[in-house]
Design goal:
The protein has 3 domains: about 100 residues, no CATH class; about 130 residues, DNA Cyclobutane Dipyrimidine Photolyase, subunit A, domain 3, CATH 1.10.579; about 120 residues, 3-Layer(aba) Sandwich (Rossmann fold). Helix content is about 50%, strand content about 5%. Strands 4-2-1-6-7 form a 5-stranded parallel beta sheet. α5 packs across α11, α9 packs across α11 and α15 crosses α16. The structure holds flavin-adenine dinucleotide (FAD).
């Protein structure tokens, strides 16, 4: 098994990892597909990026400052994959709600031998070399290399013939970077739902090559064809766009959630904030299905973000946990005498559901919610309408 990479849930640790990775970033294009113990040939920044303990634009700026664009183009492109998936899901949120609804149905639908296969897959007891190691690595470390994620998903769907939704659920339970957009849409891509008819088939020789021979699954154990799954087309909606910032906010507070934990940097850095709320919704991990390690990591990251925001804005931070985050934020806003609560709008997924409940509860006590969106997202998301490459070409040509 690979050595567990360490992921301390702070911005400081993210910056340190970025700094340590910069000398290797210029070799990313040539080396990124190798899955090696410790994973030093890739950035391992995803858990921090997913919480925005560090922001995409900082990472891109740092590699471009150190290397020529040609040397790091592939890396920059991969960072934009995250943006692309998020922008795409904003416009087709049904990909998330369908997956979410399917998970309990698929789970209940597994009986007898199929249920035993599903359990063996999650516990790394299939006997397929590589696959079993990745299942255990994921649970032990909260991280998997991208190529291992692709092989794992392909074997899950086409060799073990398990429902893709349950594979996505297994990843979403254990990944520290668990992201509704990147995870759900990548599983859909492997299964042939994302790019109609195009699937990803894991091959034994490819696994042996890119694991430097550490894993050599027997070729006859792996599926030799990958038939694409099909579905009803997903409805497309217009992505949410921010209203202009209010000219007069009155007394403003900040609601902090784990999808943007750098509130003190960028768009809101100069806002006048009287109070900060970073309260943790007690039932969230159970609702979403996170493993205890993912919950603990996310919660600690929220604490780190709140501490920095508190320092920057010179405002008191309400923390702790609550069974009803919407009512708790509304009561906090009322007691603090706030007119407006500002927040970065969460992306499609469980935090958006919480955010919309917070907005409704605030309205009941006469407090306005002001949703913001980072310029990075607002400029990139509208282009995520078709495939990745037209999206990337627009970004690349814009410089
Ligand atoms: C089945 C499957 C499920 C996945 N689930 C997630 C998930 O829940 N959360 C998540 O952040 N990524 C997910 N990915 C994408 C990718 O595997 C991870 O982002 C990447 O492996 C993280 O490692 P790294 O930080 O070392 O990446 P690097 O290779 O160093 O890339 C730098 C950054 O670019 C972004 N990135 C790189 N590749 C991708 C990609 N293919 N898609 C989206 N963003 C990318 C990440 O933010 C990453 O931190 C999934 C991929 C697959 C195939």
């Amino acid at each position: 098994m690979a050595l567990p990479p360490t992921f301390t849930p702070t911005r400081q640790a993210a910056l340190a990892r970025l700094e340590a990775y910069l000398p290797a970033a210029g070799r990313y294009g040539a080396e990124r597909n190798f899955v090696r113990p410790g994973h030093d040939n890739v950035s391992r920044l995803s858990p921090w990026l997913q919480k925005r303990l560090i922001r995409e634009e900082e990472v891109v700026a740092a590699v471009r400052a150190r290397w020529s664009f040609e040397a790091v183009e592939k890396f920059v492109q991969e960072v934009h994959w995250r943006t692309y998936w998020k922008g795409w899901l904003e416009q087709r949120p049904a990909a998330w709600t369908r997956w979410q609804a399917a998970v309990p149905r698929r789970r209940d639908g597994l009986a007898g031998e199929r249920r035993a296969d599903w359990e063996a897959a999650r516990e790394g007891r299939t006997g397929i070399d590589g696959f079993d190691d990745w299942a255990r690595e994921l649970v032990a470390t909260g991280y998997l290399h991208n190529h291992a994620r692709m092989w794992f998903a392909s074997i899950w769907v086409f060799t073990l013939r398990l429902p893709w939704e349950l594979g996505a659920d297994f990843f979403h339970t254990h990944l520290l970077d668990a992201d509704v957009a990147s995870n759900t849409l990548s599983w859909r891509w492997v299964a042939g739902l994302q790019t109609a008819g195009k699937t990803y088939l894991a091959r034994a020789d490819n696994i042996a090559k890119y694991t430097d021979g550490r894993h050599r699954p027997a070729a006859h154990r792996l599926a030799t064809e990958a038939l694409a799954l099909s579905e009803e087309p997903l409805p497309k909606v217009a992505a949410w766009v921010p209203a202009p910032a209010a000219a007069e906010r009155g007394r403003a507070g900040l609601w902090l959630h784990p999808e943007d934990l750098s509130a003190e940097i960028g768009e809101l850095a100069d806002a006048r904030i009287e109070a900060i709320n970073a309260i943790w919704p007690a039932g969230m991990a159970r609702e979403v299905g996170w493993a205890p390690a993912v919950e603990a990591w996310t919660r600690a990251a929220l604490g780190d973000g709140a501490e920095r925001a508190g320092r920057r804005f010179g405002a008191p931070v309400a923390a702790g946990e609550t069974s009803d985050v919407a009512e708790a934020v509304a009561e906090w806003a009322r007691v603090a005498g706030l007119d407006t609560v500002i927040a970065y709008r969460p992306f499609v997924g469980p935090w958006l559901a919480k955010g919309l409940a917070v907005e409704a509860a605030l309205a009941r006590v006469g407090v306005r919610m002001e949703w913001r969106r980072r310029a990075w997202d607002a400029t990139h998301f509208p282009h995520a309408t078709r495939g990745y490459f037209p999206f990337w070409e627009r970004i690349r040509s814009a410089g």
